[in-house]
Amino acid sequence: MSIKKNGSAVWQGGLKDGQGTVSTQSGVLNEVSYSFAKRFEGEAGSNPEELIGAAHASCYSMALSMILGEAGFTPERIATQATVSLEEVEGGFGITAIHLDTRASVPGADEAAFQDAANKAKEGCPVSKLFNAEISLDAKLEG
Question: Which Pfam families is this protein grouped with (predicted)?
């Protein structure tokens, strides 16, 4: 099986005074603006790191659901936040770390089974496999 999806971006102008838009094939994002100020100076709006975080959190949550299902558990809810660290490194900037913080309600699962599934999902999620960065995890089983 091979699945291909696409996203696109258009940039106009210089690095600090320019701006761009990002769009997705589905149209969920349609010419959403991004800029240097939104990425590096805290101005409200989108940036590549939050888009990477959303992609990683959604992929991880789906992977965790699959692994729990294979173990005989059906999660009621999995909520994951991915915090992406962009830092100055030799030669420019790099994504150096991503921290996954997940909370899940999984009837019947004990802590050991949940933690095993959570760690397998962190390692096996297709988006996790993309990164040359430290990926950490804080997984909590709720109620």
Answer: OsmC (PF02566)
Comparing CA positions, the residue from 35, 8, 37 lying closest to residue 22 is: 8
May I ask the CATH architecture of the domain 48-141?
2-Layer Sandwich (3.30)
Looking at the chain, the domain(s) classified CATH 3.30.300.20 span: 48-141
> 44-99 pLDDT, tens per residue?
989 999 999 999 999 999 999 999 999 999 999 999 999 999 999 999 999 999 99
CA distances from 57 to 62, 78, 92, 95 (A): 9, 10, 26, 16
Tokens of 95: 């994504």
Token pair, residue 12, equals 């106009």
- Whether 119 and 109 have beta carbons less than 8 Å apart is answered as no
Q: Which two tokens stand for residue 65?
A: 């659901």
Closest CA to 45 of 33, 55, 31: 33
